[in-house]
Amino acid sequence: MNDKFSLLKKMRRLSGILVHPTSLPGKFGVGDLGPEAYRFVDFLQEAGQHLWQTLPLGPTGEHNSPYQCFSSFAGQPLLISPELLLQEGLLAEPDLSNVPAFPEEEVDFKAVQAYKEELFKKAFTRFKELPEDSELKSELALFCKSSHWLDDYAMFMAIKKSKDGLHWLEWEKKYRKPTKSQKAVIEREFEDEILYEKFLQWTFCRQWSQLKAYANERDILLIGDIPIFVSGDSADVWAEPRLFQVDSDGFPTVVAGVPPDYFSATGQLWGNPLYDWKYHKKTNYEWWMERFKTQFLLSDIVRIDHFRGLESYWEIPADSETALNGKWVDGPKDEFFEVLIKTFGEEPPIIAEDLGIITDDVRALRDKFGLPGMKILQFAFEDEDSNYLPYNQPYNCVCYTGTHDNDTTTGWYASASEKARDKVRRYMNTDGSQISWDFIRTCFGTPARFALIPIQDLFCQGSEYRMNTPGKAEGNWAYRVKKELLTSDVAKRLYDVTKLYGR
To answer: Which pTM was predicted?
Structure first.
């Protein structure tokens, strides 16, 4: 691990861009791992950036949230590039000749899913026709052997698709809680469908690994994201219910969320099942260490979403309609990170998302293990002496203009109180006419080790372009960048700011 992150240690004060791959340009309705992703890496290099932060990369469910995935280990098949499949001979030119007119600035997930699924099945058919001793088939076989999570995930998805996406708790018992012998029957029943799911995961991992290598060769590090909780409708809960606080039928007894905070007056009821930490302790946190191992293959640095849940978490009765009726319960605390360090080395490259209600105990846990926390500039101007203000930021932190959960900076400024706007103008010595770039300059000028900006701020985009509105079920996660916005002029402007502030 230490050798792998030598670049990170050498490059001390870095900056970069936060954008999920699904938000990149491309002609197939959603950003993917094809040519436009490589073009974005080139843009980062031209702009003098060394960090690319994504959201979680897993397969998403009904509301398309990357924080509610069907697996903690699997990748998002929608990110697979048809153009790269064409290059490998798994698709033919005619397969890509009738691409629908997808919208440029948002993802129509349903339409994209239908279109790409058809392409992937064609690629899978051609793959199966390859000789048994072909290099590609050998690679898939090796991937299957080395991915401990894959058998359960592939079976889970094969069954789920046969049930039109129905939540696994609504399946018949033989699928919901299969015995060892029933699993053998299911394997025969869905043999081709299971292999198809494995093919998709192998393809995703190959394409992502190639893109990551391309970025790393250009001194660009990838920041991944681990959601602390997993979706109830996931292969994780289906295959390993003992890891979670669920009843004998698999229904959660308590669920995750947060109490009222900046984002919501009634708190946030996420609904994820909570962990059985006593069981995890007995296994020396084996499942979690495997999860980090997988993530460290996908990224160079890992952000732990809702880090505070490892110190204490908000436990809500499963039948509650809001997050108000909850209580704080102790998490695994120091012991978890001691095992993590024993597994991955003294300085694991981890960012602690420490937003929301943060106590002295949470800060102490973060600081004991030297983890950088997050400072959001949008939060800095609402209090008299906020610890988010640049002069209060330590070196060991990550400064953001905003995150995927915030409004864009232009949108935030437009709706902020006049008191906050006035403080911004005086602090940044600006008239506010290009507030996004004022925030970028200020962010890059902080002492923070890392400075990151959501891509919308590069283009001074307003609230209609935000990625997510917490507490809002529909209409999130669909943002896309128009290809023509990623210009050399924008790259040059960002490069100049970056060099001015020594990043």
So the answer is: 0.96
